[in-house]
Amino acid sequence: MDIPLPLDAPMSDADADALIGTMGRSARVAAATLALAPTAQKAGALVHAAALLRQRAEAILAANADDMARAAESGMADAMRDRLRLDPARLEGIARALEAVAALDDPVGRTIDASERPNGLRLSRVRVPLGVIGIIYESRPNVTADAGALALMAGNAAILRGGSEARASNAAIHAALADGIAAAGLPRDAVQMIPTSDRAAVGALLRAQGLVDIIVPRGGKGLVARVQAEARVPVLAHLDGINHSFVHASADPAMAEALVVNAKLRRTGVCGATETVLVDRGYRHAEVLVAALLEAGCAVRGDADAMALDPRITAAEVADWDTEYLDAICSVAVVDGLDGALAHIARHASHHTDAIIAGDADVAERFLREVDSAIVMWNASTQFADGGEFGLGAEIGISTGRLHARGPVALEGLTTYKWVVRGSGQARP
Amino acid sequence: MDIPLPLDAPMSDADADALIGTMGRSARVAAATLALAPTAQKAGALVHAAALLRQRAEAILAANADDMARAAESGMADAMRDRLRLDPARLEGIARALEAVAALDDPVGRTIDASERPNGLRLSRVRVPLGVIGIIYESRPNVTADAGALALMAGNAAILRGGSEARASNAAIHAALADGIAAAGLPRDAVQMIPTSDRAAVGALLRAQGLVDIIVPRGGKGLVARVQAEARVPVLAHLDGINHSFVHASADPAMAEALVVNAKLRRTGVCGATETVLVDRGYRHAEVLVAALLEAGCAVRGDADAMALDPRITAAEVADWDTEYLDAICSVAVVDGLDGALAHIARHASHHTDAIIAGDADVAERFLREVDSAIVMWNASTQFADGGEFGLGAEIGISTGRLHARGPVALEGLTTYKWVVRGSGQARP
């Protein structure tokens, strides 16, 4: 295998800053070209890269086998090994994802709004790329292709930093992406990968103000928390998805049962999963609702009122209301109507996704208006919190921050805008 | 005078953190109410505050006289004392500015876009307030009213930190604003003023992640640079306005002369002033252009080619191309066509405002597309870079950052959005 493996040599902070400085300046140069690249050229790069992934499938799977062998030696947990593993079907999925991103509408050049001033100046706001995106991720090698492709399609340069456990897989996938980019006549440095496993390079990336415009961490809470704590560059991320489904007294019982079970259990490990179910004291089918959760295999932890609904419910501790289980565990609280639900959510939500199940439209609209989360839902499963489900075609992540972009972020969130003013000789009086 | 003056006692970082923590939590509580306040209530608060400013004019001017007396004792420079000074006309201007903000369109609740998914989910993005805005400013007491009013009208709570030199004026203006807010039935803590002159409180505000959503510095470069260097909270600001006016060979000479003189000299101290004039080597009226600048009282520093245009031009040093003079001084470089101008701007611009003066529309459109600045202009004076001139009704500042908001920022830039999803019982397959 001739894919160059990342360096394992320890690195000083100064060396890491120098490395990131060099990469950042190359990225900035590439970004200037990408900002002006036609849609077809960017899309062509991704389609070409997808073809290269298929052509090189054998080598890429061999690289992945090396990573898997090291993972086995190091005693990596099964769940993490599953995330690391590639097979022909998964590799085909990565190639198709590149093609899907290539088919998305290009936000660059789109006019946001326009006006004409009384003095005849014509103003418009036009979308332009953000610039240089830093992406820090773990285990899943598909992020190399996905995130690099989204950054590129929105006209940005990207600096990728994958987990050391996936270094051979990432290098092989990155090479296909870079070759596709070069074949389309775009600068190879449009998507660069940090060539070292030393964590000093991550620190350097996080403090690369002026070189990197935004950092997107993709991974577990430990990674996201470290990035948010250390970064001097703006971060687009969510740390927790402590999501609520509130069942109002006016909810249809069959709908409530179906939505709560889906919101909690369809996939327990996703950030859109419901972690706490709030049951209105006036809802008359609460026993059936919690029984459905229990019978679907979910452990239920409740407050005193919830515990009275079913003997299988165990006592919730204080920390439960602020816990993202990411597992078949659910906390249940009985609340006094909409106001009780709003108070609980205001106190415990991570401002990711919160839902109400209700027949009463006035109550539901008040919930949608008053809950301050990136996504608020009425009569839908919180598991829909996803860029693909929202019609964005893909997502680079879900933001629980309030600035720039909120909720699922895809191409538009990787752009900014500029003001374009066209005059006919106006001087300011 | 019964206006309480700020404390001058030195403060430890821990005490400053405690103070800002208390203020930030009160602001967060107030913000939750403000986020749901009707437009008329917010506008009513500002109109009431304007009336109170007029009612209390005598006391406010007396407070300002105290500040002016201290300024005189401390030997404050004339320009700064002029910024500090209030008189009946300036106070009336502050009251009218509050009424103007009250009349602006409320962005909160506005739908950005909406769609329906194939599964029947109805999605929309709706504008909501950012939350808590920290505003740090110097000298001009009108910022107390202006910035507080903009934050409030966009549904946010604000924490203000004015300069110690204006503390009595700021306290009097703030009291009118807070009383107007309370009279409208909104929480008085919606706009708070930090009650100490100790700089430790600024440090605490800058690191108040989670309590403050964005910091807006309003003042000189020293202030903005310190805020940008220290802040752990996102900052909306520009440090420099190193703006260019490029005169292309195809420019109309009369228009070029009028625009360049206006862009440089209308007001030399504003951030939208042109600092460097780039003259196309093919432009045949360059001598007349620089003579117009010189005769209007502008010192001109040029490169070797520019110096050949007029003996009064002195030699520019390397630093001149990166200098924001904010004075009647201009640097002039002769460049080779559009490409030469683009290269100079890419290297030296602060990405604030850059203009081309040209008759050739293809050249101008390429300039508008390729220059990566917050504002790009064709055949207009860079001095139009201003929220009021752009029809925003006001501005809290001009952002040269790339995230969230770029260029002039008014109410919309002080909001974010949430995703609202309305379903009819959809569970995710």
Description:
2 copies of one chain form a homodimer. Chain A has 429 residues and is α/β, with parallel strands linked by helices. Chain A has 2 domains: 13-236 and 410-418, Aldehyde Dehydrogenase, Chain A, domain 1; 243-386, Aldehyde Dehydrogenase, Chain A, domain 2, CATH 3.40.309. Chain A contains 14 helices and 16 strands. In chain A, the strands form 4 sheets. Chain A has a 7-stranded parallel sheet with strand order 10-9-11-8-7-12-13, with helices on both faces. In chain A, helix 2 (39-55) packs across helix 7, helix 6 (142-153) packs parallel to helix 7 and helix 10 runs parallel beside helix 11 (286-295). The termini of chain A are far apart. The interface between A and B is large, with 59 and 59 residues.
Number of extended strands of chain A: 16
What fraction, in percent, of the residue positions of chain A are helical?
Answer: 40-55%
Briefly, what CATH class of the largest domain in chain A? Alpha Beta
Q: How would you name the CATH homologous superfamily of the largest domain in chain A?
A: Aldehyde Dehydrogenase, Chain A, domain 1
SSE arrangement of chain A, N to C: HHHHHEEEHEHEHEHEHEHEHEEHEHEEEE
Number of helices of chain A: 14
Label the CATH architecture of the largest domain in chain A. 3-Layer(aba) Sandwich
